[in-house]
Amino acid sequence: MEAPIGWREGTLHVEALDCEGIAAEYGTPLFVYSRAAIERAWRRFGQALGAHPHLVCYSVKANSNLAVLDVLARLGSGFDIVSGGELKRVLAAGGLPERIVFSGVGKSVREIVSALEAGIRCFNVESAAELERIAEIAAAHGAVAPVSFRINPDVDAGTHPYISTGLKENKFGISMPDAAPLYRRAAELDAIDVRGIDCHIGSQLTDVAPYRDALDRLLELVDALDEEGIGLSHIDVGGGQGIRYRHEEPLDIDAWARVVLEGIGTRALELVVEPGRSIVGAAGVMLTRVEYLKRNDERRFAIVDAAMNDLIRPALYDAWQAIEPVSPRRSAEGARVHDVVGPVCESADFLGKGRELDLREGDLLAVMTSGAYASVMSSNYNTRPRAAEVLVDGDTAHLVRAREETEALFAREYLLP
């Protein structure tokens, strides 16, 4: 099966459209997504999990563009949200509230009220204080709040410290020693309906072993609670399934599914999973054009029109993403090692360092694997408008986010009288 994003006839294509043509129409910097790639990645989870009752809840924080959410909602996806804003986005895109789980450590009163009124599937509760707040709000509104508890299993996922979430020093979740007493407390509350248990141990995981370790610890708790008469209906194993940026071996989804299903065994637990990066990461590219070529002594720089405000992962995580010419030259004789940098006035403003590229000013480059944690993390630093976004469906490109106008960036600011 042909990859939705790849080189054909000497030019990078997203589905049936060449990126040179897309950039000519919509300008740069520009994010381009493939509908086929998103749908294929989402369906992969259902294929692996088979007949076991399950719900794939896409993690909205990975890419919250309305068109992306719309594509997934049409597939019947659930959604994992972490804010009231994401709740509104999902509902606006046609997502069903009964397929929404609400995660996050700092849910506000307003967010809890909005989620109760919408009728979401459940809150993933992350502290005793949050449980009490949800119970109080639900009681005041004459409602019963469905909850699951996010457990911190203290499992080392072996990932970057900034995207590790399952260790006891992380802010996320409830510690194992505190979990059973909190379930007992929840069972006493008339305004709380205890539904499930969940965890999320980190992002960009490429080994099934941490999932197995976390699942084993959660299931021990599930069984202990069941003996006390606190029966759960679902187990949420989170997301974090890793993809390839450079040399990583992507997580084997079939192997992951076998580990999870074998662990659950004959327990009557619906399985919830919250993939984000693995759904959209490889489904997008960022297009950027070379403005200047510069040399400082032995260092060569390719200064492009995209910057850290458009794609912050390299500056934030020292993340590596492939940077490729959209239309490579036939000969590599002119290739030189370049640092690919942006125009923002920060030394951290780079997209990639030490890249061997044959470049001319005006060349179009593609930063690969830019569908997740890219545009969604962009900012207006240096008063730079956020980039446009396009979703390709076969031979049609849809503008799904217009490029911001500079004047709009300060339209809500006011001069002194």
Helix and strand topology:
Layout: E1 5-8, E2 11-14, E3 17-18, H1 19-26, E4 30-34, H2 35-49, E5 54-59, H3 66-75, E6 78-81, H4 84-92, E7 100-102, H5 109-118, E8 122-125, H6 128-140, E9 145-152, E10 174-175, H7 176-188, E11 192-198, H8 209-227, E12 234-236, H9 253-264, E13 270-273, H10 277-280, E14 284-296, E15 299-304, H11 313-317, E16 323-325, E17 336-341, E18 350-357, E19 364-367, E20 388-393, E21 396-401, H12 406-409
Helix pairs in contact: 2-3, 2-9, 5-6, 8-9
CATH structural class of the largest domain: Alpha Beta
| Secondary-structure arrangement, i.e. CATH architecture of the largest domain | Alpha-Beta Barrel
Strand content: 25-35%
What integer is the average pLDDT? 94
Q: Tell me the name of the CATH homologous superfamily of the largest domain.
A: Alanine racemase
Largest sheet composition: 9 strands, mixed
Radius of gyration, in Å, reads 23 Å
> In oligomeric terms, what are we looking at?
single chain
Which percent bin holds the helix content? 25-40%
Quick overview of this protein structure:
This protein has 417 residues and is of the alpha/beta class.
